[in-house]
From TrEMBL:
Signal sequence interval, chain numbering: none
Keyword annotations from UniProtKB, A to Z: Hydrolase
Gene3D superfamilies reported for this sequence: alpha/beta hydrolase
Pfam family, one: Hydrolase_4
InterPro entries hit by this protein: AB_hydrolase_fold, Hydrolase-2_PEP, Hydrolase_4
Gene Ontology molecular function: hydrolase activity
Protein name stated in the entry: Exosortase A-associated hydrolase 2
Record-annotated Serine aminopeptidase S33 domain positions: 38-167
Amino acid sequence: MQMTTFVPLEAFFLDMPVAAGLAVAGRFALFHPPQGRHHRGAVLYVHPLAEELNRSRRMAALQARALALDGWAVLQLDLYGCGDSAGDFGDATWDQWVADVLAGCEWLRQRMSLPSTSPLWLWGLRAGALLCVEASRRMPGPCHLLFWSPLASGKLALHQFLRLRAAAEMMGAGAKGVMARLRNELDQGRRVEVAGYTVAPALATGLELATLTPPNATTPPASLVWFELGTSAPEQALTPQPPGLAPWREAGFEVGFHLVDGPAFWQSPEFEAAPALIEQTTALVRRSAS
């Protein structure tokens, strides 16, 4: 019988300040301490939006555990108003979420007493990758970036999210009218309800402005590891790389793009695993510490 390696896990609430008028509130966090004698660095996981967060929890936990076994300190953090953290989703803003990511990075560095030269990874799934990019722009030094099926822009993320409401209200061509009405309500400063979530104009505006473009050139070079999930069909082997990769190379990032066999687990209400994604992610992140 195969033995399962025990990995300790710490669950706690990390107190962080929030926007003016709101009290200090705890963010739910899961910390996976690094295992073994060689501590490679730190990784902060940034989750996707709404139900994609819930549907991807298991895969995120499996990857965090694999990284911890490989010697990484990994923090999973529920952003303000999300998951088990304090606050309401309807009070969340894009800037608040970026601040949460930065605070999570600082907590990791202090907890592990990491020197500035120790590798730090921001790992984002879907819209979480956009948050990773924005946080990296505001960090004092370079960090590595790990993207799992990132969305090309916040505008696309917001459009896909609003379409959930449109699909629930109306089918066919009428959906365009619902989308236009939702956008108008946000532009007028009113909140909208989408799939059980309240979206505030401040969140929609910040998300819509987010782009998957690199921060300023990095010295020393940082890494960008980009994964997309697909099938193992032969024709997939020739899938072109996303056009958005070129600016990252020009900015000095060491870029790697990888198509991995596996399901779009963030879309499925049932747990679906992508073992190849976990294995390749762990191996490629390890290279930054070598």
